Write the structure tokens for this entry.
Amino acid sequence: MNPLSSPLLTDHYQLMMLESYLEQDMQETAVFELFVRKLPPGRNFMIAAGLEQTLDFLENLKFSPEELTWLAPHFGDSLIAYLEQFRFTGDVHAMPEGTLFFPDEPVLRVTAPLPQAQLVESRIMNLMHFETLIASKAARCVLVAPDKLLVDFGVRRAHGAEAGLLAARASYLAGFSGTATVLAGAMYQIPLFGTVAHSYIQVHEDETTAFEHFARSHPDNVILLIDTYDTEAGAAKVVVLARKLSQDGISVKGVRLDSGDLGMHARCVRQILDEGGLEKATIFASGNLDEYRLHKLLSSGAPVDGFGIGTALDVSSDAPSLDCAYKLQEYAGKPRRKRSEGKATWPGRKQVYRKYASADGCMAGDVVALAEDDFHEGEPLIVPVMEAGRRIGENIPLDEMRRRTLASYARLPMPLATLEAAPAYPVEISTSLRTLAKQLDEGSGASGRQT
Amino acid sequence: MNPLSSPLLTDHYQLMMLESYLEQDMQETAVFELFVRKLPPGRNFMIAAGLEQTLDFLENLKFSPEELTWLAPHFGDSLIAYLEQFRFTGDVHAMPEGTLFFPDEPVLRVTAPLPQAQLVESRIMNLMHFETLIASKAARCVLVAPDKLLVDFGVRRAHGAEAGLLAARASYLAGFSGTATVLAGAMYQIPLFGTVAHSYIQVHEDETTAFEHFARSHPDNVILLIDTYDTEAGAAKVVVLARKLSQDGISVKGVRLDSGDLGMHARCVRQILDEGGLEKATIFASGNLDEYRLHKLLSSGAPVDGFGIGTALDVSSDAPSLDCAYKLQEYAGKPRRKRSEGKATWPGRKQVYRKYASADGCMAGDVVALAEDDFHEGEPLIVPVMEAGRRIGENIPLDEMRRRTLASYARLPMPLATLEAAPAYPVEISTSLRTLAKQLDEGSGASGRQT
């Protein structure tokens, strides 16, 4: 069983429901939509991500003989027979990856026979939730440090292997420069960055020898970690060593700081490097960084050229989850609405239209409307991406998605582009959608009938 | 490339350092230890977890031809030749999974040729950090609700597939009753729990029909979700339906609440069920639960028999990461110490001794000492688990680890077993360890020499 593609990566209740649906022959078309109920505190927008992995999952979904053998003692024969033949044959509509979006806006819609649309819920949410979470966090770092080298350093404290990989992908999509995670470079062609750890310095008998060994093994990438013992003393050693190395045509590209008061050290180190003739050497900082520390460092004028952002990025430390949901909107042609306290949903298949201000091209408000009979001005954000279980449309490379995402930041109204919570971006629920919800609540729609 | 076992799931700098170590022929024995620097706010202890996955990783570590082909253009021939033959041949010592531990106490020690011990850092931390994080969170839920059914519901908002699986494992290890994640049941033999989603109720024309369909498809597991429209009305429908079902020998096992004021609804629903002759039907609650809400519900006397805990567990919402580190303690027979500001480490190979009070058997203080020449009273917590790259010692089933973990809670001093931050558990650094650190700081040890 491959945990990354196994259909058993689902909640037990999905299989319980499937068994019941098959018994009742309830296999008509269901429509589910994925959306986020509300923004985490202090956040102003989200970035849609995870679609490519979701479509991969759907396109390749099948039960292996080993999985069926494991399931057999726990479920009835008719479910097992159904799962043997199982393929996802539905349609998917979605916002392209990298799209800025807001609460109540569907980012993905699944239209498929009820058992199929139900079974895939857990993994679709697992993928879309996580990549959206990380892209949304990464975007904030990019917005406060738009001209800096930003590198994902988080794999060691990411929540498992897939989190490490997808965090590298989602942060790159949102505008990061690259990652330290080698496998993410191999799988997604994301640029890789890395220097040395403190242990490298420590296993050498002295710091200068460590610096020199590293420089001679990697003459094209001489970035030296200088905080193992004393940061400024380390910088001074770099200056001395640089003269020696230059005789062999090796130049010091930069230094890395990883502890202490990074702003203060960066200033002192910059001065030492400049006075030592290393004006071109860059300063790279890491160590418990997040978007708030980046902003503080840069607005105080700290001369830092790049940042390694680890834990806070890969676990989205201030908001390690989003309040997202994958909810039934229609079954057998009839719109449905969940009305549980505090968890009510807007029914039906929906589209999101985005308007832009003519003056500056900035985003000027969205409308959530019914997809088929309720046209509005603006750009429709949801597009078809899968038909009858096969991907459609152009295959957009990650680099291209990243370029589009970076370009979209320029259209974000200014208050939303800061780290402070701004007044909510206007998202209007269309009149016909409100009317439909009201009708269902009043019991004229199918899901409103109660006995 | 299998992301869950690929040696490329590592930081780029590990390969940079390896290349340099090979050039300098620095392949003597290195000792690294994994520990947590400090507890998250409000926490009193941690639970060691992730060892089994770590040993699996080390035992099977090798580079595939595909991985070597990918690496070849980026690194020198001698590194590629070395990696072709790469196997982990080192020793591992560790606390058994489920052991309660505290800051500054090593939970795992790797003793191996330097390049090996270095390369495996990223994935060892990735695995041990995450499972320890989740086991430590889950333990808090178990401590506040020791007699309740506790089920992991978190896969949809876990950070990727592996996080969902390992969260199920780590929470079960810490005393949870089971999980909803089917694949975790298949892979780790963890008991599975699950009922239905709201969508199941909504696709039926009315709620009672939905209840009846579910009961008849799963007569042995009739747990009905009653909050889709109106919780108390749902409970009343269950009472009526139960009479009909009992004629066919089907009994209602319980109901699930998933929204609103769970304590208030549980009381009303309990009364409705009791008055309707369903005294034996249980009430299961879910929806944004964590250990604090569990404690509040139970201490207010809410008649809830079991809880599904999802997002807050699987992302460890209040503390989504631990400040853990994997640090060099010794190289080529000489102890090493990192002295970066705020990140200094205790040098050398260490053991942790735990004392117990004779009166009540409770844990009464730990000593962190040098492993080989510094014996102390108490139970040594760190044991050998891998020798020359192969596992040693008994293979402990997960159920047995879980029983031991549950038993260990009884030995936790009372203030530490609550949700409030208690005075720190006493962890003493032995005199000889302090002396060694001081010697290194004063420059008499190898790592202290600076030029």
Remarks:
- Chain B touches chain A through 115 residues (CB under 8 Å).
- Residues 12-134+321-347+380-425 of chain B form a domain with the nicotinate phosphoribosyltransferase fold (CATH 3.20.140.10).
